[in-house]
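User: I'm writing a short methods note and want a consistent example. For Bifunctional chorismate mutase/prephenate dehydratase, I'll paste the sequence; you return only the structure tokens, no commentary, since I'll be parsing the reply automatically.
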Amino acid sequence: MTQPSADDDALNDARQRIDALDQQIQALVNERAGVAVQVAEIKQRQGRTDFYRPEREAQVLARVAERNAGPLPDQAMARIVREIMSACLALEQPMTVAYLGPEGTYTQAAVYKHFGHAVAASPHAAINDIFRDVEAGNAHFGVVPVENSTEGVVSHTLDQLVGSALIICGEVALPVHHHLLSHERDIGRIKRVVAHAQSLAQCRNWLDSHMPGVVREAVSSNGEAARRVAGENGAAAIAARAASDYYDLPILASNIEDDPNNTTRFLVLGRQSVPRSGRDMTSILVSIHNRPGMLYRLLAPAAEAGVDLARIESRPSRRQAWDYNFFIDMEGHADDPPVRRVIEAIQSEAALIKILGSYPRSIGLEAE
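Assistant:
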């Protein structure tokens, strides 16, 4: 009979320590959940409805990254803490989050990255449906794509922000890796590739090289592409890895995007403004008078106040020909004195200014 070696004894000791630590972690998580229930009871007695606090969660995750000593990377530790917070928040107030469906889209992935998996993710067929559902109170929050690092802005989201009363209360930066999904085992048998128009554009070079002559069909989302292809032969979808699981579609090729740093930015929409987190972004909508030098006069106050303009986009206003709305993202919160001075200076020059929201900036912990 073989005698246990020193390594066997060490392995058993390590396993026992893991079991003991698991027991402690479980007890602490449940203790945290009990405190969360107490917080909910206090807020209910006060008549408060702010169960979900974006700035509070951003601060917690920032501290997680700051104090993380490894060996787990910051992203992995943040995901664990995010899920704990998500489960505890569900005990306080179960939340519904509207997103661009169907299941398996990148927008759904952004929902889970930002809120954790304890929320009820509600798929919608179009971006305007998400706005309408949150405005009506049928969903607590909505998540919509706003720009891609390769293909630029999602114009429909910007256009919806013009007339909506919703407030931007968060952002998610999600690395996008496209996969070719199909029941066909041979790429040569595929006659049609289905995906969102932006995804087809993001994979153009790969498709030209590996699938020349194959018909490319644009649909409303990559999740919809996977749903359609799931019941067809001779067709493939470009979609997220999650869509492969949802629709039981094998992956024929992975990471087929032309830019390996391809990233999509999503906005979280709600009905309540967000206090300062200490690391914020403010988005505004501005319409200016069509006079010489107006764009300079619009941007100059930010330079004078030392406020960084992270992004500026223009969209036709649809009021008259060659009339534009400008969407501006600036670092800082609207309650910060420098940002407030910039907004006041712009307001004195602009025909229209609308604060779309101040919200915690993405800190990169969403990365996969």
